[in-house]
Write a structure and sequence with these properties.
37% helix; 235 residues; 6-stranded mixed beta sheet; 4-stranded antiparallel beta sheet
Length: 235
């Protein structure tokens, strides 16, 4: 598989605090890769830097062979990278349909087919297309955040804690759809607080501890690793 995203020696500083300390990793075409680690390990900072929301203090970010290090967020979206941030950040006063259209704001082509695809993935959004997004349940808002991201028509989807605050039955539904999105050809870079869920969803994983990658490998191998079990799986 070809690399779609290649991170080399990436560092991120907030004032005098080094949140990410020279990490390197790759995402291959059609792959789901997960970053796992405790709160404050640097996972969200990594995604926000790739998305152009934070400027790196060092290192390079290559996407499809193009150096996108330090580019602004709009340019990153145009290139084909979309971030679904922790906390969803939908527009509560807009309807479901209006939120989806906002996701396609950089596109000039016909988006009607993609709206229908989102509705096929999330039938509840079709039922609530005229409803204000702020009145949706937490699970429905997460579905809308995913659907809005898909409307960018990007090739790499970055997900920051998609299960946060959701009931287990909704989490199961969300992750089933994440796998469907991946099977449709979209590569995924995933941060997920539930390490077991992350490792059983992704094919490759990296463990971040205080801004550094301390372990990496196939997810199945990390699932069986005693250090990972003790630190993240409660076993």
């Amino acid at each position: 598989m070809n690399e779609i995203l290649s991170i080399h020696d990436l560092s991120v500083n907030y004032g005098g605090i080094e949140a990410v300390k020279g990490i390197s990793f790759d995402v291959h075409e059609g792959e789901i890769v997960t970053l796992i680690g405790a709160n404050g390990a640097g996972k969200s900072s990594t995604l926000r830097t790739i998305a152009g929301l934070v400027k790196p203090s060092g290192g390079t970010i290559n996407f499809r062979g193009d150096n996108i290090t330090g580019r602004d967020a709009t340019t990153i979206v145009k290139k084909g990278i979309t971030l679904v941030p922790e906390g969803r950040h939908i527009f509560p006063d807009l309807t479901v349909l209006e939120n989806l259209k906002v996701g396609a704001y950089l596109r000039s082509d016909d988006i009607s087919g993609d709206i229908q695809w989102v509705y096929d993935l999330f039938p509840r959004l079709r039922e609530r297309m005229k409803q204000q997004a702020g009145t949706l349940s937490g699970g429905e808002q997460q579905m809308l955040a995913l659907g809005r991201a898909l409307m960018t028509n990007g090739s790499l989807l970055m997900l920051d804690e998609p299960s946060m605050g959701l009931a287990p039955i909704i989490v199961e539904e969300i992750f089933k759809i994440i796998r469907q999105i991946n099977e449709s050809g979209t590569s995924i870079l995933l941060i997920e607080q539930n390490a077991f869920l992350a490792l059983t969803t992704a094919s490759h994983a990296y463990v971040l501890e205080t801004g550094k990658i301390t372990m990496q490998g196939k997810s199945s191998g990390l699932l069986a690793d005693k250090r990972v079990k003790d630190a993240y799986l409660g076993a």
